[in-house]
Amino acid sequence: xxxxxxxxxxxxxxxxxxxxxxxxxxxxxxxxxxxxxxxxxxxxxxxxxxxxxxxxxxxxxxxxxxxxxxxxxxxxxxxxxxxxxxxxxxxxxxxxxxxxxxxxxxxxxxxxxxxxxxxxxxxxxxxxxxxxxxxxxxxxxxxxxxxxxxxxxxxxxxxxxxxxxxxxxxxxxxxxxxxxxxxxxxxxxxxxxxxxxxxxxxxxxxxxxxxxxxxxxxxxxxxxxxxxxxxxxxxxxxxxxxxxxxxxxxxxxxxxxxxxxxxxxxxxxxxxxxxxxxxxxxxxxxxxxxxxxxxxxxxxxxxxxxxxxxxxxxxxxxxxxxxxxxxxxxxxxxxxxxxxxxxxxxxx
Length: 348
Ligand SMILES: NC(=O)c1ccc[n+]([C@@H]2O[C@H](COP(=O)([O-])OP(=O)(O)OC[C@H]3O[C@@H](n4cnc5c(N)ncnc54)[C@H](O)[C@@H]3O)[C@@H](O)[C@H]2O)c1
Prior knowledge:
The protein is of the alpha/beta class. The protein has helices spanning 13-24, 39-49, 57-63, 78-87, 102-115, 129-140, 173-176, 180-196, 302-311, 320-339, and strands at 4-9, 29-35, 52-54, 68-71, 91-94, 119-121, 146-154, 200-208, 225-232, 237-243, 252-259, 262-266, 274-278, 283-286, 343-344. The protein is globular and about 60 Å long.
């Protein structure tokens, strides 16, 4: 295969800021078509990137000979559009959260297996430079076991990001299904599994809607803040705090790991992406670039990785099962918040 021929479903912000330009600029990829139900938006993006516009993804799948599809639509559409694209013979890169239920995620994984196509999930946090460096340091064993952690992901909300602002699907319960939990929590669930290199076995969630309003000035009926306590298989304890109400242009996407031999601060200071403070008084500061924020985009590396996997026939490391485990943590936290009890996560 000389180049990977792509179709992109959804011409919203993630497509415009990341997938479309990243595919367009990749010499190993070819952007063939883009689909969006918003015709003006679709035409505008297609014109800019020289792609064919479609307003119905099934028509694109029927008419174009594609190798791969990127699914970048509201959460409730991910499962069906992914399954249809796999059945049409395409590899699929689907945005996070991969699905809104465990059952749908399992169907997506089974379809990919049955059709012998790759399924990758756009959980890009692990590819960001500070997180790559953190993983590398953890793997040297210098810091010993991670005893506990705090990870945060907070900003002013997707109304400042989505193409539809405060009228966005992000604030509509039956389209988003999960609020800040599905938006930022899934990212952090994936990142912490990745950094620790093990599974979480129990979570407790306090999840609520504190302040966010939609375009009509009405409080949204989906979560905008969550405090989630997590316990790993080996006993590491940690908290994830995520928010859509960090107003005042204060984005926070950082992690602190408290380890046997010291502390690692990831994306906690502007100058150094990673700082390590050892118990013996030594320290290491790494200038390794930034974690992307809504206002400061850095290349995600996601579609490059997917393209490389397709060309070189290697299974993506961020596959369907990785996506499943991330939503399993978040759905378990939501179940805990409902029942008021800690939720055990069974190992599959
Ligand atoms: N990986 C990341 O860092 C990251 C960041 C932001 C968003 N996302 C994910 O990307 C997905 C899209 O989010 P966004 O920020 O681009 O939202 P957005 O609101 O900016 O765009 C969504 C687009 O989907 C289109 N759409 C709706 N129904 C459609 C349909 N049936 N067929 C085709 N297009 C349809 C809308 O018209 C809109 O243009 C979400 O699942 C979100 O969670 C991922």
